[in-house]
Amino acid sequence: MNLTTAMDVSIVIPAYNEQENVKELYSKVSKTMKTLGKKYELIFIDDGSSDNTFEELLKLSKTDKNLRVIKFRRNFGQTAAWDAGFKQAKGKVVVTMDADLQNDPEDIPRLIKKLDEGYDAVSGWRYKRKDNFSKRIFSSFSRLLRRLIIKDDIHDSGCSLKAYKKDCLEGLDMQGEMHRYIAQLLILKGYKVGEMKVNHLARKKGKTKYGLLRLPKGFLDLIVVAFWQRYASRPIHLFGGAGILSSLLGIITGSYLVFRKFYYSEPIADRPLLMLSVLLVIIGIQFIIFGLIADILTKTYYSGKKHYSIEKKI
């Protein structure tokens, strides 16, 4: 890739309680980037660490003009850290990685080179993971859910080591645990996302931040991605369709009861089926109303924005 901007590469690294790792990681990344021979900046985001992570980064920043440090007031999570890093990055290419020394900085040049093949983003694939068994099981389950719900073909969406062209990150506002779905969001916008096998190293220092709570949080964000994938600009089709189906079932059920009453003279006032038919109609009406409200909110959200992406103008 012909990198000719004032800043060629921005490397964004969130760090939470990684005081034992940041100095070694800084040395490895700096060595790799100096060998690459491109103008770069290294952006560490201290995500509200309770140890001496920030102090260690502060010492390093005093000796290297390429190092920038952003400190959060408290722990906001990896998604917020990456979002802050993306907005501060000045490079034409943005590379992300973890601060736990499990991502190999020597893969960075290969990721950047992979972009030359016509990709807007390249996702790392830890094909030989060094994590414990339980973590690999949860990751496999998460990948299965992604395949089923959003048809995700990327092998390792959870890998933090990725490279992006800065242009495709413009206007990408992330909330919750959406950092693991950046590739899917870019694909949704029409960008070309590739994948590359990368090294994965065993954690030697510090403690993993991965916990059981990340699974349900990730699943809920997966539902959000699925919604945006299919109904971002037309929520009335989802809620309205469910509302029509529910109301139709209620009307059919009610009609059946009316038929039984007048044809067979059966009492229906005390039948649970009557309550069900009324409930289905009410729920259907509420779904349609929700759809109308969601449609109004969507139009408000897209006011002044585009829900499409232009690749070229000739």
Describe this structure in words.
Helix 5 (about 135-150) runs parallel beside helix 7 (about 215-230) and helix 8 packs antiparallel against helix 9 (about 270-300). It is built from nine helices and seven strands; from the N terminus they run βαβαβαβαβαβαβααα. It is of the alpha/beta class and about 325 residues long. The protein has a seven-stranded mixed β-sheet with strand order 3-2-1-4-6-5-7, sandwiched between helices. The mean pLDDT is about 85. Helix 1 (about 20-35) links the parallel strand 1 and strand 2.
Q: Outline the biggest β-sheet.
A: 7 strands, mixed
What is the rounded distance between the termini?
22 Å
Q: Percentage of helical residues?
A: 40-55%
Q: Determine and state the CATH class of the largest domain.
A: Alpha Beta
Low-confidence regions: none
The chain-level mean pLDDT equals 85
- So, the CATH homologous superfamily of the largest domain? Spore Coat Polysaccharide Biosynthesis Protein SpsA, Chain A
Number of strands: 7
What fold name stands as the CATH topology of the largest domain? Spore Coat Polysaccharide Biosynthesis Protein SpsA, Chain A
Strand content: 5-15%
The number of distinct structural domains comes to 2
The CATH architecture of the largest domain is Alpha-Beta Complex
By DSSP (H or I, 4+ residues per run), the number of helices equals: 9
Task: Give a brief rundown of this model.
This protein has helices at 22-36, 53-61, 78-88, 108-115, 133-150, 182-188, 214-231, 235-264, 272-301; strands spanning 9-15, 40-46, 67-71, 93-96, 121-125, 162-165, 193-197. It is an alpha/beta fold.
